[in-house]
Amino acid sequence: MTAPPQHIGIVACSAEGAALCYRTLCTEAPGLLGKYAHPEVSLHGHSFARYDACISRDDWAGVAELMLDSARKLAATGARFLICPDNTIHQGFRFLEGRSPLPWLHIAEVVAAEAVERGFRKLGLTGTRWLVASDVYPQKLAARGLAWVRPDEADRLECSRIIMEELVNGRFLPEGVRTFQEVIGRLRDSGCDAVVLGCTEIPLIISDANSPLPTLDSTRLLARAAIRRAITGG
Questions:
Q1: Of 127, 141, 134, 118, which Cα lies nearest the Cα of 193?
Q2: Do both 116 and 210 map to the same domain?
Q3: DSSP-assigned beta bridge partners for residue 104
Q4: What is the Rg, in whole angstroms, of the alpha carbon atoms belonging to the chain?
Q5: Helix (H, G, I), strand (E, B), or coil: what is residue 201?
Q6: How far apart are CA 5 and CA 177, in angstroms?
């Protein structure tokens, strides 16, 4: 008898990104498991305001404590491993490594693996200003022999404003789409052959259909990796 898929725990931060990840798990798993079938999924999220307060003061240890609290609660539900569909708060990982009750899939590692699989060599980074300035992606990309380009300061700030004021609140405006298309176009002109959608809400407005570069959709890639791990057990 085939073992059932492992129970997936989602450590949520913002609602829109977590919801997209959860929907992807539930809608794409049936292609592998059969009609309506998907792994058991539990989700825990602290108030986004608590994360925002920590992020605003660069308190990544505080972010890690919130993530760890979610991890412990998800472990108690029977989850076997964890995913976090929020790129920015992965900056807290260095404070929770070795303390988590469960293993994690790291979103940037998943994206880096996909980039290698698809033959990309130089990636543009998009996301909040905190994420783009951080080492979350550069560390994982460098480990795979990949190069990267960060947008300039003005582009970082405007993309971050759109994310934090519009996308996380479910507001998807044409002006925001145009801004991201222009930023990605400049990354293309800098020699990038693909763009990391490094905020889990960006795929709600940008995709291969409207992007000047091929996209690496961190949200859906993480969900798909979680489905594979749940099925294979490793």
A1: 118
A2: yes
A3: 82
A4: 17
A5: coil
A6: 37
Cα 126 from Cα 42, distance rounded (Å): 28
DSSP 8-state class, residue 98: T
Supply the CATH number for residue 166's domain.
3.40.50.1860
Please give the DSSP secondary-structure letter assigned to residue 167: G
Measured CA to CA, the distance from residue 66 to residue 54 in angstroms comes to 10
Range of the domain at 100: 8-106+221-232
Read off the pLDDT of residues 56-115 as tens digits, 9 standing for 90 and up. 999 999 999 999 999 999 999 999 999 999 999 999 999 998 999 999 999 999 999 999
- The DSSP result for 53-95, as a single string, is HHHHTT-HHHHHHHHHHHHHHHHHHT--EEE---SGGGGGHHH
Helices (H), the chain: 15-28, 30-33, 48-56, 60-77, 93-96, 107-117, 129-133, 136-143, 153-165, 174-189, 218-232
Give pTM, 2 decimals.
0.95
